[in-house]
Every structure is written in C-alpha cells, then in structure tokens.
Amino acid sequence: MKDSQNKKLMAIGAGTLIVGVDIAKKVHWARFVDYRGIEYGKPFKFNNTIDGFKSIVEKAENICAANKKTEIIVGMEPTGVYWKPFANYLKILGIKIVTVGTFQTKMAKTLDDNSQTKSDPKDALTIAQLVKNGCYQEVYMPDDIYSELRVLTGLRFQLNDKLYSVKNRIHNVLDEYFPEFTGVFKNPFKGKASIQILKSCPFPAQIVELGEAGVLAEIKKAVKKTVGRKKAKELIDAAGSSIGVKYGYTAAKIKLSMLMEELEMITRQLDEVETEMETALKETGLYETITGITGIGTVSAANILGEVGDMNRFRHERQIHRLAGYNLTENSSGGSKSKTHISKRGRKRLRSVMFQVSMVMVARNEEMKAFYEHLKNRDKNPLKRKQALVVVAKKVLTIIFKLVTKKQAYNKAAVFGTFRTQQIIGYELKAA
C-alpha cells in the first residue's frame, strides 16, 4: 500500500498540470492545479459534446504553455456512464486519466472551506486536490475481448435482475388467485408442465372447467412423454378447494399472460447472452484454464474475467482481492480494536460472482470442501459459514490468477502448500 501511494505521488511533479473534473450528464466543470495545489485560472465549464471536449483540452494545453507544464493528468469521479465518453476521448489523445471515489470526494470537500456545502466547481477542485495528494486509482478501460466480456457480464446481471422481478410478480398473482399452485408444482418455473399450465389455464375456475382430461391434454402439449396424470389430478383437487379470490379474473389473466411472455423473452435473451459469453471466453484463450477448475463453469469463468479484465496487468493476487473488496479492514484506537471485516470497496458484481462460485466449489470441489471444513472447525479462530466462504472465494481468485499468469493447468495436488495441506489432512483425520 505504501509503495503504491509513493508511486502515485512520484508520478506528479513540477511539470504536471492536474485537471479535476466534476462529471454530470450534460455539463462538466473543471479546475486546474499544480503539484503544490496552487490553482490556475477560474473554474471552467464545458459541455458533454465533442466541442466541449476540445475546449477543455485546449484550455489545459494553454495553461501548460503559459506555466511551463509538460504533462496533463485528468482526474474525475466515475459517475454512472457519463464519464466514459470523455475518458475515452482523453485516452485516444494519450492524456493520462485517473479516477477518484465518490466517497473520497464527499469526505474531503469540507477540508477546503470547512463547509459541507456542495457545488460542481467545488467538487472539481476537491477532485484535483485528491489527485495531487495521490488519492486516486488508475483507470482500466479495456478495448479488446475483455471489454466485450465486461459488457456481456453487466447485461447478464441486468437480465437476471429482471428475471427475478418477473418471477416475483408471477408469484404475487398466484398467491392472490391460486395460492395452492406452488403446492402442486414446487418450482413453477422449472418444469415444462408447470410453464404450460401457467400459460394456458393458470386459474382454479379454468382448471375445474377443463377437468382431468383437459388439464392432461394441456400438459402433453409441453411434455411429449406419457406423464402428468398424477399432477393433473393434484391440480384439479387443489383448484376445487382453492382459497384464491374470485374477482378480477379478466384483468388477472391479461396480467399473467403478459408476465409469462416477458418471462419467456428474458429467458431467451439470457440464453443468447450466455452463448456470446462462451464465445468471448474462448477468444481469450483461457477457456480450458479456468473451466478446468472443478466447480467453475463457463458462465462463472466469463463473469470473473468480465469483471477483472486481463489478469496479467496485476502484479499480485492481493490486488485482485482489493478489486473485489475482499481486503480486510479494522478500526482501532488506543487500547480498543474492532474485529476485522472485508472492506466491500470494490467491484460489487465480482464479489457477488465469487461468493456464488465459492458455494458451488465447497459442494463440488474436493480441495475447496476440505479447506472450507478446516476453516470452520479449526481449533484456533474457527470461522463462521459466510466468513469461510469469503476465504474460499479469495483462494479461488488466487488460484485463477496463478494459473492465468503462469499459463498452467489446474492441478488439485498443487492447490495448497505443504503446511496448509498438512493442516487440512490433520483436520480430516481428526474428523474421521
């Protein structure tokens, strides 16, 4: 951490002009300072257009010429997606871009005038001062296959959120009009038979009217094998004694029909996205390397690379842990000291993916399962379930990083060092 901070400070010298930019949707504000924090000129407003981008670059170059500056560093908050066009424009010109966290700006802006007031010009100056102090992050904007994976990963997360929302709304309709439905079909969205019933005759009155033969005929439209008679009878019995409301049927039918159409559309879109993710993952040349790890599938591997990007840009696995927000933090003062916890200051989606991966790994991967059990049951400092899963997630990230950077295949015998292997083996013998 200290070396990284020193490098950031050393990158800013007497010949550096620091431009702090407060990003908005249509209009941005900029302030200009040197390595000592001395400001040049007045706050500069420019539009989120090509002419606006040209004007800010011209302004910065004029200040450089007038004050013998040879380098420009532009700092900004990564606000939504609005910062990306400007950052991309600067990247093409070869101007260095760095980002400052929104939380950093919020905490630091009171230092300038001892006031909590907020304004765009003030925020721009705060950003410039933070960059001057080395409180910034290098920008990674992939323009190769990793950019494709990043977009696809984000799209898949969005579609999954929509899918979850649609399923909840369908459940709401069933809970109101036919709450017994989920007693017959435990997961209404898993089997073809339940999907067909939801599309054709989802309400008790419809099912009773069709009778066993009619319901069975509907099921056979989706399930070609001679099955479903038992389910058809269970469904008719449930419909006959349903406690669901009896009014608003027409509107409810329309609502459920539209929701089922939306469900099918999102499911189809997810399949398309996952197919593209597999194609993009293979183009990285790392498909076999990552999916060769027991417990990691194609989608998980694509999600990980989409969030992390090119792993060869990192020097150590701890940098990836920090990217995921898995670095440990603690609060201490005097004789008091808090428990350590993960910072959660990183890519939320990467953290989510890795937590899901860790749950699959402890179920399917023998090495990770043994490691997980050891963490939970060791004599000194045993971890709780979620804590152990976080450690497993960090270990999996480390394994992937090592395999990718060293261009090796997964070898379960080399997952742990001698000491850790003896610890785990010792636990297994004790448990036996």
Explain what you see.
The chain has 432 residues and is of the alpha+beta class. It folds into three domains: 2-138, ATPase, nucleotide binding domain (Nucleotidyltransferase, domain 5), CATH 3.30.420; 149-276, Orthogonal Bundle (Helix Hairpins); 287-328 and 341-431, no CATH class. The chain has 19 helices and ten strands. β1 (16-22) and β2 (27-33) form a beta hairpin. The protein is globular. The two termini are 43 Å apart. The mean pLDDT is 89.
In short:
The chain has helices at 2-10, 50-67, 83-93, 102-108, 110-113, 120-132, 145-177, 181-184, 192-200, 204-222, 229-240, 249-283, 287-291, 298-308, 317-323, 348-364, 366-377, 385-406, 418-431; strands at 16-22, 27-33, 39-47, 71-76, 96-99, 137-138, 328-329, 332-333, 336-337, 341-342.
What value does the Rg take, in angstroms?
28 Å
SSE pattern, N- to C-terminal = HEEEHEHEHHHEHHHHHHHHHEEEEHHHH
Number of strands: 10
- Strand order within the widest sheet? 3-2-1-4-5-6
Give the SSE layout.
Blueprint: H1 2-10, E1 16-22, E2 27-33, E3 39-47, H2 50-67, E4 71-76, H3 83-93, E5 96-99, H4 102-108, H5 110-113, H6 120-132, E6 137-138, H7 145-177, H8 181-184, H9 192-200, H10 204-222, H11 229-240, H12 249-283, H13 287-291, H14 298-308, H15 317-323, E7 328-329, E8 332-333, E9 336-337, E10 341-342, H16 348-364, H17 366-377, H18 385-406, H19 418-431
